[in-house]
Write a structure and sequence with these properties.
Layout (H helix, E strand, L loop, with lengths): L1 H18 L6 H28 L3 H14 L6 H14 L3 H14 L5 H17 L2 H7 L6 H13 L3 H15 L2 H15 L9 H10 L3 H5 L3 H20 L4 E3 L24 H4 L9 E3 L4 H41 L22
Antiparallel strand pairs: 1-2
């Protein structure tokens, strides 16, 4: 009897415990997991933001692409594309940077701050790529100060200093702030000092090239080309001397070389009376007529042609060299004051405040 009561009591307690278990609906479970997924998204986006701020651009790219795969139609996709473009820009992969800035421009509203930021970045990368002409065309008649700054840099790199100064003056007027005045002032100094850049005198280069083989190239510091011209002209002159010959009489003492080393021109041979020509037993005709060969005349002509053409080429190349010197001066000094110094516009955040 006691055992029966004992088992009954245990059964009763078990029933009570199971009867108190609560069951959740499908909606409740989805809500719970939705909250977890939202938290997970925030963690992943926050991690990407951290990697970008730490300048770990390659890992940031990898994390951003993982986000795109997981969040396909999420509203944050344009932000992710923007920072993919930023990473590629920092890694100097400008083609891919432009591609993802274009993705942003296709997804966000025109005239929005987000759109403007992506467009500024797009134009900045266009400048970095060296597409100066395209940038100038795209920013023609613009009143936007940031675009005017980029336009000014494009004019500078094209050696169009007057238009460059005009663009910077316009941008300064629109900004109308001491901060930008301080940034633009060194650019004006660069433009003013361009006239002090040392240039080559094209007439000096031409004359030196005419009087000395390869001299014009040496003056332009194209040493390899100068050596090549000097060696070519020298070789052609030597060929002329090698082909030189003289008139000698067979019975004179001037013929020091054996007949094997001589190149006679047998103008005195009479084929019909061949046996009568060699009157002595020395196998040499009575008269030997050594002449200048046609190859010696050709070598002189070629040497003169190389000399004059190289001098003319160095004369024409002087303009290119002077342009390169100015370009080197500009790039060297602009590197100290890059266009990125001006890009202080508002940028979209990878982790928006209202993102959930």
């Amino acid at each position: 009897m006691r055992n029966f009561l004992k088992y009954y009591f245990c059964f009763f307690l078990s029933c009570q415990l199971f009867s108190q278990q609560t069951y959740r609906s499908v909606d409740e479970i989805e809500s719970e997991w939705g909250g977890y997924a939202s938290y997970q998204k925030e963690e992943m986006v926050s991690f990407c933001d951290f990697l970008f701020k730490e300048k770990n651009y390659e890992r940031c790219l990898l994390s951003c692409f993982q986000l795109i795969l997981k969040l396909k139609n999420d509203p944050i996709i344009p932000n992710i594309y923007y920072y993919i473009g930023r990473c590629y820009e920092e890694l100097e992969n400008y083609d891919l940077a432009i591609k993802y800035y274009n993705e942003v421009l296709n997804l966000v509203e025109d005239q929005s701050e987000f759109y403007k930021a992506a467009y500024y970045r797009y134009m900045h990368v266009t400048l970095l790529k060296g597409n100066n002409d395209q940038l100038i065309i795209d920013t023609r008649d613009t009143k936007d100060p940031y675009l005017l700054i980029l336009q000014g840099y494009a004019f500078l790199k094209n050696n169009n200093f007057g238009d460059a100064r005009t663009s910077f003056v316009s941008a300064q007027s629109v900004f109308n702030h001491s901060h930008y005045n301080k940034l633009i002032t060194p650019i004006y100094k660069i433009i003013e000092d361009i006239g002090s850049v040392k240039n080559y005198n094209k007439y000096s280069v031409l004359l030196l090239g005419l009087f000395f083989p390869g001299g014009g190239h040496f003056m332009l510091k194209d040493y390899d080309e100068g050596k090549g011209i000097a060696a070519t002209v020298s070789l052609l002159i030597l060929m002329r001397n090698w082909g030189k010959a003289f008139n000698y009489e067979a019975n004179s003492n001037s013929l020091y070389y054996t007949e094997a080393n001589s190149i006679p021109v047998y103008n005195s041979y009479d084929v019909t009376k061949f046996s009568n020509i060699l009157k002595k037993n020395d196998k040499i005709p009575l008269s030997l007529n050594f002449e200048y060969s046609s190859s010696s005349r050709m070598s002189i002509f070629l040497a003169a042609s190389v000399l004059f053409s190289s001098a003319w080429y160095s004369y024409k190349k002087t303009l290119i060299k002077n342009s390169d010197l100015i370009a080197f001066y500009i790039n060297n000094h602009i590197g100290k004051y890059p266009a990125s110094n001006f890009l202080d516009f508002s940028e979209p955040s990878l982790m928006p405040l209202d993102y959930k």
